[in-house]
């Protein structure tokens, strides 16, 4: 009987494990998911909770998500030895595998931005909203905010859900307008790049929206440090941006168990991401290792929508490999980003390795789909391994 270990119980890991359990009988494979956390968060809620568009209770226990016949090990992965086919655990034990799926996601490291930890923990005007706790805290801060500069910054590192900072910025601008204080607020977002969104034609549509609503985008701004006492963010080139309410995106990296305690990321340029074939999701050097989501180096946008598509590819190809059949499933780079532009309006950016798929059209239906429909679909279908549109 084959031993399959899935490292990570986030969107990619949970869905892949459940898909594999549906494809493989109990006498064909043991499937084990390992993660340091027992909570699975609906991360798209993190930019909706501050405005009251979703309530805070947006998490599930991992055991509730996994199908019967999938074992859950509550422990942190500390290393992977693909030569010995073992996964090391924090408690000193290890898991042996015949096939490994790595879906460990990004590691948020606020300490990588000097001043950020102090600003968040000791001040009441800084909320790194990629952290659930900060998203909750920001809700009250917005209610008490009566004017000044609202600033959103992005780190130099790759980030999961690259559209989230734009969505938070646009929803904040709309919120201030609805609160009747828009004339008293300057809304700014920065990024260390020439554009705030990388894919056309969505980029030009967003510029049109931002110009119409007087949202400022500061290009090529690399955050160097935060001075929370002065309320200033310093750029690497000496620029300064003052703030009264600050929502930074935390720097993000590969998990140390991958980058420091395994050879799986050795082939990537930065050493932060597992090197895989961008279509099969199979590791470049170890045939029985697959990876998906934020932890690997395929050139796609790091979104749950991408992980969802990859989960189908990984489950199909791993099953084929286990049965000595050719791997025919291919991931085409699909990613989707619902860009919420204001309360009740959104446009859907869909694209793959070849380019854009959907038109950049704002609609109420897009908002309803993302805010009112998608959370239930996420929990009750996708994460359970059921997907009418794989």
From TrEMBL:
Single GO biological process annotation from the record: sulfide oxidation, using sulfide:quinone oxidoreductase
Organism per entry: Natrialba magadii (strain ATCC 43099 / DSM 3394 / CCM 3739 / CIP 104546 / IAM 13178 / JCM 8861 / NBRC 102185 / NCIMB 2190 / MS3) (Natronobacterium magadii)
Lineage: Archaea, Methanobacteriati, Methanobacteriota, Stenosarchaea group, Halobacteria
PANTHER family: SULFIDE:QUINONE OXIDOREDUCTASE, SULFIDE:QUINONE OXIDOREDUCTASE, MITOCHONDRIAL
InterPro entries named in the record: FAD/NAD-bd_sf, FAD/NAD-binding_dom, Sulphide_quinone_reductase
Name of protein: FAD-dependent oxidoreductase
MF-aspect GO terms: FAD binding; sulfide:quinone oxidoreductase activity
Pfam families attached to this UniProt entry: Pyr_redox_2
Occurrences of domain FAD/NAD(P)-binding (ranges): 3-118
Signal peptide bounds: none
């Amino acid at each position: 009987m084959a031993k399959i270990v899935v490292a990570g119980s986030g969107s990619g890991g949970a869905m892949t494990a459940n898909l594999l359990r549906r494809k493989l009988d109990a006498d064909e494979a043991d499937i084990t998911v390992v993660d340091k956390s027992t909570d699975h968060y609906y991360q798209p809620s993190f930019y909706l909770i501050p405005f009251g568009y979703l309530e805070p209770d947006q998490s599930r226990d991992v055991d509730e998500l996994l199908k019967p016949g999938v074992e859950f090990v509550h422990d942190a992965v500390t290393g992977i030895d693909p030569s010995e086919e073992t996964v090391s655990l924090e408690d000193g034990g290890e898991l042996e595998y015949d096939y490994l799926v790595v879906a460990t996601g990004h590691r948020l490291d606020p300490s990588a931005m000097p001043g950020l930890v102090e600003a968040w923990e000791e001040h009441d005007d800084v909320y790194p909203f990629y952290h659930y706790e900060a998203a909750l805290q920001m809700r009250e801060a917005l209610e008490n905010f009566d004017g000044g500069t609202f600033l959103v910054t992005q780190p130099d590192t790759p980030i999961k859900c690259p559209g989230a900072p734009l969505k938070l910025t646009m929803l904040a601008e709309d919120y201030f307008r609805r609160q009747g204080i828009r004339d008293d607020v300057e809304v700014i977002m920065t990024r260390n790049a020439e554009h705030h969104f990388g894919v056309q034609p969505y980029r030009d549509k967003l510029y049109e929206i931002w110009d119409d609503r007087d949202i400022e985008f500061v290009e090529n701004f690399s955050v160097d440090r935060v001075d929370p006492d002065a309320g200033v963010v310093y750029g690497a080139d000496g620029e300064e941006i003052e703030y009264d309410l600050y929502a930074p995106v935390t720097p993000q990296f590969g998990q140390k168990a991958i980058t420091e305690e395994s050879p799986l990321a050795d082939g990537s340029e930065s050493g932060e991401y597992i090197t895989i074939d961008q279509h099969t999701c199979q590791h470049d050097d170890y045939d029985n290792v697959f990876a998906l989501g934020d932890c690997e180096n395929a050139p796609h946008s790091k979104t749950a929508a991408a992980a969802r598509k990859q989960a189908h590819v990984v489950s199909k190809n791993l099953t084929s490999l286990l049965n000595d059949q050719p791997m025919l499933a291919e991931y085409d780079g699909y990613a989707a980003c619902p860009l919420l532009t204001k309360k009740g309006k959104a446009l859907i950016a869909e694209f793959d390795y070849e380019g854009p798929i959907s038109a950049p059209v704002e609609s109420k239906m897009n908002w309803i789909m993302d805010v009112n429909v998608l959370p239930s679909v996420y929990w009750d279908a996708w994460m359970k391994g059921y997907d009418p549109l794989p």
